[in-house]
Amino acid sequence: MKLLILTQIVDQNDHSLGFFHSWIEELSTYFEKITVICLKEGAHSLPQHVSVVSLGKERGTSRPVRLWLLLRYSLAHRNEYDSVFVHMNQEYILAAGLLWKFLGKPIYMWRNHYAGSILTDIAATFCKNVFCTSKFSYTAKYRKTILMPIGVNLALYHNTGVRRIPRSVLFYARLSPSKRPHVLIEALVMLKKKGVVYTADIYGTALPKDEEYLMRLKRRVTESGLDGQIKFYPGTPPAEGPAIFSAHEIFVNLGESGMYDKTLFEAAACGSLVIAASKDWASLVHGRVVESEESLAQVIEETLSFSQEEQEAARATFRRAVEEHSLSVLGERLAKTMLAN
Question: CA-to-CA distance for 208 and 264, rounded, in angstroms?
């Protein structure tokens, strides 16, 4: 069977979406041919039976041109795919869903986010199945939705053996209001006032529209006298993530329930003690949900005081959770669903 995949970026070095390169590799073990249509193409090294065509964002193509190319490629390659798998972007389905239906190609959409709209609902009507990882995702409400594992590449994400910095806290995400690094900074300010000893590293790059937000974060750190304890670093490619996670004791993720950020599992796979705002994560590891600056400060302080035995017990719980959400498990379940229809 042959598969058409649509995604935003095919670039193994992309800070946010580089992980999808490994997803394509995993799915390629189940399909005789895969054609990928992406918005933007970058560095990739994929099997020979995987071909990539770009809508040209890296060349500066306009939206009308990208729409025309999407329809053109979908039609031109119609004999090279039996099903369509759309990753995250419902816009592809809104633009080409009628064409794929006319061509008799079953459509599957992966969309995992707490937000959605009538456009999401319209896109879902074209789909045979919708995939997400969180029961709090907007798309979890459809009868055709199937909950899936996160898909962590355990060949990449594991404890690298680097020295873990004592009493260290890590934030690793795009620096935007939706990721809520400001909540972490306020919690760290509270801990400083209590005399709690720690260091914190914030890794992430802001989109142009969030540059002012990033500057406010940095100003808040400086005004609080925390320049010596809190450091900012730019976002990194996925290949550098394991060493960063492995070097920190605590990983904080404040994404809202419904997103189920994969970095929760990547950090846990590398041995970090994960603190999260996600109800999905709390349910999986029988942990606490962080809902405010005060509760985050309290949980960080408690985690910093863990004995060696308590740390190892938490890491064992996290490892079991990660194994259930490995990329190999996800690839098998996605392929089994799409190959069965």
Answer: 25
d(CA 155, CA 282): 25
CA distance 339 to 258: 27
Residues 143 and 135 sit within 8 Å (Cβ to Cβ): no
Listed residue (151, 32, 17) closest to 89, CA to CA: 17
- Give CA separation, 324 vs 152, 265, 285, in Å: 10, 10, 12
Can you read off the two tokens belonging to residue 46? 């994929």
Beta bridge partners of 5: 36, 85
Nearest to 204 by CA among 176, 238, 168, 225: 176
Q: What is the pLDDT of residues 258-292, one digit of tens each?
A: 667 889 999 999 999 999 998 888 888 888 889 89
Low-confidence ranges of the chain (pLDDT < 70): 258-259
How far is the CA of 111 from the CAs of 3, 216, 245, in angstroms? 18, 31, 26
31-34: long-range contacts at Cβ-Cβ below 8 A with a sequence spacing of 24 or more?
Answer: 31/1, 31/2, 31/3, 31/335, 32/1, 32/2, 33/2, 33/3, 33/80, 33/81, 34/2, 34/3, 34/4, 34/5
Task: Indicate the DSSP class of residue 128.
Answer: S
**What is the structure's pLDDT at 258?**
67
**Pairing relation of β-strands 199-203 and 230-233?**
parallel
Q: What is the C-alpha separation between 278 and 255, in angstroms, rounded?
A: 7
